[in-house]
User: What shape does this take?
Amino acid sequence: MDAALRVCSSPVAPRCSAKPSPLDPSICQPTAVGLPCWKRPACGPLFTRRRCVAERSKEDPPVPALAETEDEKTQSDGDTEVSVSSTAVIDNREEEEEAEDTKEEEQLETRLTYNIVFVTAEAAPYSKTGGLGDVCGSLPISLASRGHRVMVVSPRYLNGDSDKNFAKAVDVGRRIKIPCFGGEQEVAFFHEYRAGVDWVFVDHFCYHRAGNPYGDRYGAFGDNQFRYTLLCYAACEAPLVLTLGGYMYGQNCLFLVNDWHASLVPVLLGAKYRPHGVYKDARSILVIHNLAHQGVEAATTYQNLGLPPEWYGALEWVFPPWARTHALDKGEAVNILKGAIVTADRIVTVSQGYSWEITTVEGGHGLNELLSSRKSVLNGITNGIDVDDWDPASDKYIPFHYSIDDLSGKAPCKAALQKELGLAIRPDCPLVGFIGRLDYQKGTDLIRLALPELLQDDIQFIMLGSGDPDTEDWMRSAESTYREKFRGWVGFNVPISHRITAGCDIFLMPSRFEPCGLNQLYAMRYGTVPVVHCTGGLRDTVENFHPFAKEDSGQGTGWTFFPLSKDSMLGALRFAIQTFREHRSSWEGLMKRGMSRDFTWDSAAAQYEQIFEWAFMDPPYVG
Ligand SMILES: Nc1ncnc2c1ncn2[C@@H]1O[C@H](COP(=O)(O)OP(=O)(O)O[C@H]2O[C@H](CO)[C@@H](O)[C@H](O)[C@H]2O)[C@@H](O)[C@H]1O
Assistant: This one.
């Protein structure tokens, strides 16, 4: 086997830092055309593994005929005609199929593998306040199962309740000192190897406090910039100082930095490491889960970050005059997310729709022009979900199980939920659910506005969420106003979120904007029909119901409404309620089409791999 094949065909990345980086010229030794495949002129952004394999297979000797039997083999040395019996034709077909299979296997095996370092403020099941935790808890596992070596670096949050989540992570005994915020901060690393992934937790006393990762009942923590600066420095050091499973990750890795909390990483690579010859061949990809949060602080805090003064421009942010607080306010600030947008090698958002929206004035949260300027490296990949965790056939949190082939468990789940929440147990009454952070993004104000009118109908409504205190209070008071019909569960509760997803008939998501949205995916997997605002990832994932399509057998998985107004939301909900009541077979069709959708991470992970390849084909964006 030649060197190129030997290296590229490793199906599983060795847990070893000795594994050369995909950029290391030594791994793709001269191939047929004399250059490592990643350097060939043909390897433009659209060059794929498939072509790499196809080119290589041209050099392979032809597959010898395998199926010729004696009596069929009438070919002689002379001009004798060749007779091929029908069996041989069939055999040849089989051979072709076999060759095709082998080729496919080869394509799978020739996937490039990388040393990937996720940097994130949340990773389920260790920490989670929303979808970021879900994605960073499951995408790394999917990538590891595809042969990559994957580390996830996240804080070790201890608040009493959460301590048990980190019980299996052990102190690796390595301490580092981080120069920032006017001193040196010592952090430790804890490690757990689970599901093929190295989960690394950065330990510092600033992560040990009551509340959720970002704040408590008094609001966001005032030192979040400090806490996530520490995370970024620690994440940059982890591949260089931690020996995990016997080997380090080393310098030639790929950083996947998630949201603003991790956005200093690409800046640090450019400002602090590459000038000293470190991480010259590493790459960074910014994954934007939510552009609304950018890590903006006063300009004076720049000096705390430990960055050279000449890098100020990378984070510089000036608020427009209308957003300034007083006449002398110059609007000067630092914006951590902006730092990653201008320094990361590539940018990914969590759906295609959102990747376009953020380049518009309406969806860009002030960063649209900057993002537009990086359109050539901006892609959208729709999130997958953890289909083991969220599986109505085996979900440990729900009292009855069901599947697309046997829906009989769904009605008892609904009855159990009604009973648990003290609502009348009525199979015929449409049960509508909402789960989410109580935030401007999620459109809870619209629910608040529409509820009195909606509850005039014979329906039941359940809300689960925490966040904005005013909305929390409203949920409590609405529960006493509409005792028979409404339940508002204030808090963050994973088991009840599964039971609501399984027990409801309709799942409402009136999000103002939604980068991807996971709850509509969970709902569809559980045969709960989504009614969503037609935006971002919701538009990409929920297909509007057409009762008369496909020769009247129906098409679509839910309802999307537009514009975002009380009337259009109520209109869509009423269609859904009417279909639930009066058209049971259409309803079942809707449920089953949603349940049959492929929500696994496989397809998303393959798309991420394409982005990884592109990232390594170009030189580092910031040298
Ligand atoms: N009170 C509660 N109790 C229990 N569980 C609760 C809960 N409130 C929310 N959750 C859970 O948190 C997750 C929320 O996921 P989303 O993707 O809908 O939103 P989020 O806005 O946090 O994520 C951001 O990142 C994700 C991931 O990329 C994007 O899908 C999304 O559009 C973007 O806004 C779900 O698993 C949900 O069940």
